[in-house]
Amino acid sequence: MPHLYLVDGSGYIFRAYHRLPPLTNVHGEPVGAVYGYTTMLWKLADELHKADGPTHMAVILDKSSHTFRNELYDKYKAQRPPPPEDLVPQFPMIRDATRAFSLPCIETEGLEADDIIACYAKAALAQGWLVTIVSSDKDLMQLIEPGLDMYDTMNNRRLGAEHVQEKFGVGPERLGDVLALMGDSVDNVPGVTGVGPKTASKLINEHGDLEGVLAAAPSMKPGKLRDNLIEQADMARLSRVLVELKCDVPLPEPLDDLELKGIPEAPLRAFLAHHGFKSLLAKLSAVADTPVEVPVSTVPQEEDPPCDHDGYETVVDEAALDRWITIAKHQGWVAIDTETTGVDATRAELVGVSMALHPNLACYIPLAHGGTDMFAEVPVQIDRTTALAKLKTLFEDPSVLKIGHNLKYDMIVLGRAGLDVAPFDDTILMSFDLDAGLHGHGMDELAATHLSHSCIAFKDVVGTGKNQRGFAEIDLKTATRYAAEDADVTLRFWRRFKPRLPAEQVTRVYEMVDRPLVPVIAQMERHGIKVDAAKLAQLSTEFAHQMGALEVEIHALAGGAFTIGSPKQLGDVLFERMGIKGGRKGKSGVYSTDVNELERIAADKDSPGKDIARKVLDWRQLSKLKSTYTDALQAQINPATGRVHTSYSLTGAQTGRLSSTDPNLQNIPIRTEVGRQIRDAFVAEEGNVLLAADYSQIELRLAAHMADVPALRDAFARGDDIHSLTAQELFGEVNRDTRGRAKTINFAILYGISRWGLAGRLDVTAEEAQAMIDRYFERFPGINNYIVQTIETVREKGCTTTLFGRKTHFPRIRSKIQHERQGAERAAINAPIQGTSADIIKRAMARMGPALIEAGLPNVRMLLQVHDELVFELPEGDVEAARPVIERVMATAAEPAVMLSVPLGIEIGTGKSWGTAH
DNA sequence: GAAGTCACG
DNA sequence: GACGTACGTGACTTCG
After folding, report:
1. Reported CATH class of domain A698-836
2. What is the DSSP letter of A255?
């Protein structure tokens, strides 16, 4: 049978307030009444499991003080003192508490909570339901009847008709008359002077009801009582109306909507954590099945309040830090962020740590503020070693999920300070896996997109230019506002992204490809790679000499000095001053002088510019190598480690590839002999060697699998040279020329072919190019179908998908501008192939460490990734043992999630330097 | 900060 | 009839 519990929230708050000490929460807000109220709801939640427990429940609150009773009697409740100052802010929190329990909360303008309760009670009883009113309000006792009782959670007792009889001497049905005679000094119900509960019940029992009493008054024995009853008859009648519960309004919410559907844990947990109600949190943890996996989808997201920077706490004593850590451990998750002295994680020093537990419940723990100015006053903060030891227990606690935005950075910084971070979620990866191609994934951009919030700009905190200060020099108040906001915002991202992962089918790529990679990349960045600074310096000098000589010759040929490095000046010199024909101007009106143009001129025996073009090309190559590699790389050596530590971005490339910056170690020269020398400057430590392992033709293999091309699949299975095979199929013979053309066509297919593009590359007409493409499609059936299918899918869904479920979005696929649309189509053809390749090598990287450990090779260190290549450093003696392990991990990286119909070929080389390892 | 150029897969 | 021509990156130089 349905059983409706109606909770008299308003009545409860006042009782709880007076019964409990003036408790405050972690923010210093008074929460005594809220705590009492919360424990009351907790008790009710326990009732849920009982046989006659609630099936329906609602909390009823007073909305406003002005009701119809004030219209009847202007003094009604007029004498009530205003609620105590420290109770007022708790009223809205009561609503939060109710929401935390996922209970409906009902309040209606112009009606007191008692009236609404009466309405619901009557309606439920009429349907044959059981009703329990959670209150000890005497007015509500009028409602007691068979099927309706009251429950006082403070005394843990049920109240029925016999309780009313005992306390007021009458049954519930006559209670209104008694209350009218008694009056109520608190509510200012007048009643009749001199009549209290005893007299009232006696009179009602003698005369039946109020009207009976008033009618009998003149015949009573003379005295004060008789006179008062006669004189105050109207007041008594008014009182009768005032105490009557009014239930003639429609129900604000239908009864059926009050059905209990369980109490989701997440919002409750968040609420308890927000206020720091530790004992209840502990109880919750005791009954929780999985403390880390949280159904955050039930968290009310729309209702996150705006960031309250002044509400963040600066944690400067151990007790406060303990408190935050305890709550984080109880809650089971915490958003974290680190503040440091710089952007390079392998050099930056830790300055502070921020944490967030709930929107607006965030703190900053300064660790090294005070700046470098030894005369400046150092603010009070927890001893760094002590604080880090405490934080270590939290960050390494396997039952507490750490949430970060680009956690790789924090992992490196914290790792250098001796702290691991696990388990973790990374909101930058979540955003990338959900929305790659739609927008960037930096905190500021995401905050604007998802939270309509503009984060405090870092430069507004530390300044710019020569006035820029280190974060350690920032005052704690400002630092807290900035740092805690980052953790707060990160937590808000997580609450939004986490439920989207399964809903949008990207959990697999997040959990199986990207997330496991974070600690792996962090470790690679920390390792860095040794470079031979002397060798680079020597190359720089050589290049400078050669450039100087070329510069003189170029100026002589040009008939005067100019800046060779300026495309504008060079274009004018070549095409205006020297009168070379065939100059093409770009949209900015500058002649193109790129490598294609210069090669064209240099190849033309009759051109007056062929010598200068050749020399400029040589000069450019040297200039590029010197400035980008030999000079820059020397400057990038970390003095502490003597090695170069790149930074990999996991969210930089739309297709899921990594990218490398500061320095970019994914574009170290290899294609020319001059450039190759730079690879020789990347070396192994004494007694070690470098091992380079790369996937051979991985993208073509994946194309063969994904487009299901039997001829290509078979060729890979046999181990044939794929470009020769293509040459044979397309041109009927294999020689250097046809193989080269075939290679170009193979790549063109992967990149989304156009007849003009291919024509330009092969130096043939568009018609001839088209004929080759047609023949390719004919010889390799499946390719054309793959292209058509991919474009169709991306037009329909707006995104492509890799074999592992990685999405890349192409909003421009619906552009009205043709070339944007076509560009998106070409990118969409390439993305599943390039992306799947990226997924596979990422999986290999994540599995590599454990596989090497298992093979007893803990000294093999993975240093670099270059899209289809992994570079390791290992003791010379480990090479033979490591080789098969590395090969196996790479070759089987797709499995078992994806079983490919082509083998993945791996080529491995070793050497003292990266150059010789190839 | 944009544009041009060029290093890599 | 104009447009622009292969996918994905990052770093450096010049110049306004």
Report:
1. mainly alpha
2. G
